[in-house]
Amino acid sequence: MTEIPTHLSGEMSEAGHRLVQRVYYEDTDFSGLVYHARYLHFLERGRTDYLRCLGVEQSRLVSIDEEGLVFVVHRMEIDFKSPARMDDIVTVLTWTEKAGGAKLVLGQQILRGETLLIAARVTIAVINASGRPRRLPEGLSAQFLARATL
C-alpha cells in the first residue's frame, strides 16, 4: 500500500483542523463566484480530513464492531458571509463543539486570508450499519473531545 503524504489532509492545531484548498473553475458559476452548493464540498473535505488527522478511518468504522458505526449529516446551519472566486486560496477550519451520545457537533469556517466567507455548524448523527442510532464509543468520543473548542 502506498503511503499518502499527510500534508494532503491538512494539519491539526490546538484550535482544531486546518485545510487549505484552491478554488477551481469547476467550483464557480457563470459569474465567476463559487456556486453556493460547492461550499458543501469544501466543508465535507474539511470534516473528512479532520477525522483522518484524528486517526479515524471512516471506511473502517462500519466494521468497528458487530454493530458497525457510520456518520451521517443530520443538520447543517450555514451563514454565507462573502463570496470566493476562481483561483482564491481558501482555508477550511473544523473543530469539535460536542461529542457524545449519538451525535457530534462540529464547527466549521471557510476563510480567504482573514476574511470569513462561510460559518457553519454541522450536527452529525451516529448510526449503526443498519441505519439505527447508536452511541459514539467512549474512545472515539474522547478523540473528538480532545479537540473540542468552545
What's the multimeric state? single chain
Q: Can you list the strand order of the major beta sheet?
A: 1-2-4-5-6-3
Distance between the termini: 38 Å
How many helix segments?
3
Percent range of helical residues = 10-25%
Average pLDDT: 90
Count of beta strands: 6
Describe the largest sheet.
6 strands, antiparallel
Strand content: 35-45%
Shape: elongated
Radius of gyration: 16 Å
Low-confidence stretches: none
SSE pattern: EEHHEEEEH
Structural class: alpha+beta
Write the layout of secondary structure elements.
Layout: E1 11-13, E2 16-22, H1 38-54, H2 58-61, E3 70-80, E4 89-100, E5 103-112, E6 115-127, H3 138-145
Quick description:
The protein has helices at 38-54, 58-61, 138-145, and strands spanning 11-13, 16-22, 70-80, 89-100, 103-112, 115-127.
Could you characterize the architecture of this molecule?
- The protein is built from 3 helices and 6 strands.
- With 150 residues, the protein is an alpha+beta fold.
- The chain has a 6-stranded antiparallel beta sheet.
Attribute tags:
single chain; 150 residues; alpha+beta; 3 helices
